[in-house]
């Protein structure tokens, strides 16, 4: 029996660039309303995220306001060497690393636990009320949160110290004690962001197939078993992605809350890269040196992001890319 070969014209032809561009254009035309809504986001990132990258040149120059960025003298890595030789380097590195590490270890599990437990609540009204109250602190600015912390922990009229006095204990000046600074910082961070981050995990839980729970219930599994063997494994990809993102920002500690809460008595544990950049750049007008420190901090954050993504892929096969 002889078989006939298909004609050359019957074989699938490779797509040319014209058809590919046409397909992209059709998709853009179809989703034009969504793309229009996305324009402000693009403009924001171009102006405030990618545009300022040009200014990093001053980290390698002896920047002068009068000479401008391009006119200033090129000094290469002089500011980096000066920072690495400074006695402040290791203190800043230790404080930033420990504060970022402890913040990651404590703030990351709480939203997951909160979302899993909230998902088990059967009272709809109570569940919505708890979720709403936990989400409200997200809308508070860092200044308001810091002011609340200062008032609550005041050694004279603060609520916490009033409770300590009521049970016969001596009041504690929390914000002046170095051993309490990280606890206060991390505790306030959990309170402010736990409700918002829990929404992400609740959305992931809502996408789990309900038949999995029904099958487990038929097999005799209780609610704890269903949480352990269905809920948590099902949202593990979301947990991994969130962990990678938070690991990448471990060294990117915002200066606002630290600046509002620390004082000379807590510098030894509270002074981090971002507050150091603020003092050197804005207060002492040493712009080139501050830019070099900020660039070093960004590179460390990039390394942490790449490393956490690599470890995640090696351990579980999942990552950001």
From TrEMBL:
GO cellular component: plasma membrane
Gene3D superfamilies per the UniProt record, alphabetical: MetI-like
Membrane protein topology class: Multi-pass membrane protein
Transmembrane feature ranges: 34-60, 97-118, 130-150, 190-208, 229-255, 287-311
Gene Ontology BP terms: transmembrane transport
Domain ABC transmembrane type-1: 93-308
InterPro entries assigned to the protein according to its UniProt record, in alphabetical order: MetI-like, MetI-like_sf, UgpAE/MalFG_permease
Domain of life: Bacteria
Keywords assigned: Cell membrane, Membrane, Transmembrane, Transmembrane helix, Transport
Pfam family, one: BPD_transp_1
Cellular location(s): Cell membrane
Protein family according to the UniProt entry: Belongs to the binding-protein-dependent transport system permease family.
Name of the molecule in the record: Sugar ABC transporter permease
């Amino acid at each position: 029996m002889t078989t006939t070969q298909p004609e050359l014209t019957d074989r699938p032809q490779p797509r040319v660039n014209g058809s590919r561009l046409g397909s992209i254009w059709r998709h853009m035309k179809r989703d034009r309303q969504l793309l229009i809504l996305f324009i402000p986001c693009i403009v924001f990132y171009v102006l405030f995220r990618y545009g300022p990258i040009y200014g990093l040149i001053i980290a390698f120059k002896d920047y002068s306001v009068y000479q401008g960025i391009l006119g200033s003298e090129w000094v290469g890595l002089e500011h980096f060497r000066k920072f690495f030789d400074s006695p402040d380097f290791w203190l800043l590195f230790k404080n930033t690393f420990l504060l970022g590490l402890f913040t990651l270890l404590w703030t990351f599990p709480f939203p997951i636990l909160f979302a899993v437990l909230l998902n088990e609540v059967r009272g709809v009204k109570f569940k919505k009320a708890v979720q709403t109250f936990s989400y409200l602190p997200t809308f508070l600015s860092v200044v308001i949160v810091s002011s609340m912390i200062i008032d609550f922990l005041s050694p004279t009229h603060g609520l916490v110290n009033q409770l300590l006095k009521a049970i016969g204990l001596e009041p504690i000046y929390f914000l002046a004690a170095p051993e309490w600074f990280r606890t206060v910082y991390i505790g306030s961070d959990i309170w402010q962001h736990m409700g918002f981050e829990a929404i992400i995990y609740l959305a992931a839980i809502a996408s789990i197939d309900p038949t999995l729970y029904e099958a487990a219930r038929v097999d005799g599994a209780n609610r704890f078993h269903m949480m352990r063997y269905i809920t948590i494994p099902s949202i593990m990809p979301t947990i991994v992605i969130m962990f990678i993102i938070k690991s990448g920002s471990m060294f990117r500690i915002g200066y606002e809350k630290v600046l509002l809460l620390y004082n000379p008595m807590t510098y030894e544990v509270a002074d981090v890269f971002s507050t150091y950049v603020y003092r050197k750049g804005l207060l002492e007008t040493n712009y080139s040196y501050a830019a070099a420190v900020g660039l070093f901090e960004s590179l460390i954050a990039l390394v942490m992001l790449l490393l956490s993504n690599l470890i995640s892929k090696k351990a579980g096969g999942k990552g950001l890319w």
